[in-house]
Amino acid sequence: MVTKRKIVALGGGTGTFTLLTGLKVYENLDISAVVTMADDGGSNKVLRDEFGLLPTSGIRQAIIALSRDTSLLRQLFEYRFYQGTGISGMTFGNLFMAAVSDILGSQKKSIQETCKLLGVQGHILPVSYDNTSLVATYENGTEVLGEHYIDVSNPKVAKLRVVDLRSIPKIKIDNDAQSAILGADMIVIGPGDLYTNTIANLIVGGVTEAIEDSHAKVVFVMNLMNRLGETYAYKASDFLTDLSKYLSPNRLNYIVINNDLALSNSILKKYALEGSSPVIDDLGIIYHQASIVRAKLRDSHKPIRVKGDKLGRSMVRHDPKLLAKVIYGL
């Protein structure tokens, strides 16, 4: 029997969804997604405020990405309501998992049963089941509470650097997530919003310790674009400088970065209006002990806007197949 390579994707949101979608075609991989649970915007705010549940959007996206089911059931989990006032913007998948959590009396069991139902090939693991909120401190001393408010960028701090990210209250890594990281052959960090997805996981108690203690190769996938509120005007080296505050740069083995950002003027102008621009590659051939891996990674297809989605989504994304091919070859 062939031993499968154990890969852990550490992140959340669209970036992790993209990575998992590409990796799942490789049959000799044992994939685990360790997902941030700090999201408090959109439908996740409703789950937190009205149901007392931890956010499930990142979990739902990971489930869909690793699902082998191609039937109507998968389409239902992706479906987003766009009519009415009560559930407009909510996804069927989030509501379903909220209902199963209520029936079983456990959000953990709800995730496990949902994975079985959709034939997930892999493991979907919340980084923690503890409830918390993110607090970002900017270089002028301003503090912003809540993942959503960091993500949408307060005009007062939109172009300032984040100098510290912490969670209130402090939380600890879940045992299953810890075991996955400790037993991994490879840990892939990113792509995703640097603070609200990537570092949000690293500040959970026990996560960086597990990465340090693991014998896994550690890969950091560089974002394609920077954004207001988190990484305004950042170059690639700026991402790594900030990351090094939370994870030793000597623990990185590979840094994967896109070398094709030939974007149209219309797309560049749209992003410029949002205070965003492509991440400039100012790296050499090595960073501390990590090799720099450059490849064409951008998805040339424009993402389809989903009805009822009230949050802004990036038009420039990694290509699942191209990204997974590079990761698989490391």
TrEMBL record:
CDD domains registered for this protein in UniProt: YvcK_like (cd07187)
One term of GO molecular function: LPPG:FO 2-phospho-L-lactate transferase activity
Keyword Cytoplasm applies: yes
Gene3D superfamilies recorded: CofD-like domains
Listed InterPro entries: CofD, CofD-like_dom_sf, Gluconeogen_factor
Protein's UniProt keywords contain DNA repair: no
Pfam families reported for this sequence: CofD
Superkingdom of this protein's organism: Bacteria
Alphabetized UniProt keyword annotations: Cytoplasm
Cited NCBIfam families: CofD_related
Protein name from the UniProt record: Gluconeogenesis factor
Species: Candidatus Collierbacteria bacterium CG09_land_8_20_14_0_10_46_12
